[in-house]
Design brief:
By secondary structure, this protein is of the alpha+beta class. It has 2 domains: 41 residues, no CATH class; 77 residues, no CATH class. The chain is 49% helix and 17% strand. The protein contains 5 helices and 2 strands; from the N terminus they run H-H-H-E-H-E-H. The protein is flat, with a radius of gyration of 20 Å.
């Protein structure tokens, strides 16, 4: 939330619910932020970007499933517990490093075409 409030003027989305929460917190930093989030029905979504080496023999979906299985196994093995009294989600973004060249080429082609982003 601190990152959001410090970069507030750069947010590209205008959301009355988020703005109200940020205003309340900015005006009174001692408020119970968790309680405010619960009362306003706010859910935090944490994006997690994972770049990884894809085995050449694996298809894209198989390689992502291997990543998910690895994360799940490590989560269980280490016994991670994330206690939170507010609603949150983890949003994983997977990018196999073997796809980087293709993505760069696509972006350059799109820039060269000067077409609007869809």
């Amino acid at each position: 939330m601190i990152a959001i409030i410090t970069e507030r003027e750069h947010l590209s989305v205008n959301n009355a619910q988020l703005n109200g929460l940020l205003d309340s917190w900015f005006n009174n930093p001692n408020i119970n932020l968790v309680k405010e989030m619960q009362e306003r029905g706010v859910r935090l979504i944490y994006p997690i970007f994972i770049a990884y080496e894809k085995d050449d023999k694996d298809k894209y979906i198989q390689s992502i499933q291997k990543c998910i299985d690895h994360i799940s196994n490590e989560y269980a093995r280490i016994g991670i517990n994330i206690p939170a009294s507010f609603d949150y989600r983890l949003f994983f973004i997977f990018l196999p490093l073997s796809e980087v060249k293709h993505i760069k080429e696509s972006v350059i082609k799109w820039i060269d075409s000067k077409e609007p982003l869809i």
